[in-house]
Design a protein that fits this description.
The protein is mainly α and 142 residues long. It has helices at 2-6, 13-38, 42-75, 82-107, 112-141. Helix 2 runs antiparallel to helix 3 (42-75), helix 2 (13-38) runs antiparallel to helix 5 and helix 3 (42-75) runs antiparallel to helix 4 (82-107). Pfam families: BTP.
Length: 142
Amino acid sequence: MLSELNQNPVKPLHQRIKNALIFEVGALLIITPTFLVHRGDISVFAAMVSLLILLAIAWNTLFNYLFDCYLWTNKRSRRKSKVQRCLHAGLFQLGISLISTPIFIAILDTNQWGVFSVEIIFSLLVFAYAFVTNFIYEQYLD
């Protein structure tokens, strides 16, 4: 515990970007097949995914910084309990949903139910992926 208190509570920017890039590359590998099955136009898909990835990297970096600051301020630790890990993944997903939903609505040529169903699938995939990858990252790569 003492060694953790002596550590810098805020991860350096390069470490946050590395975390975000690892996360987004993995998410891209998981999500791409899902969308390719449902969408025929690869150029629209590529544009949408590129925009979402850039926004997600920015959100990932900012959100993790803010969450770490919260943990450090309130717990004097960056380690997350299972409840905090679920809260982290859920709040991350809420933020990414607020970012991605307008993009899905603008780009996908479908009705609101179609966008809503895509967003539900996307949210479930990203929530589970965020929970697992952040745990692995913190245990082995942090």
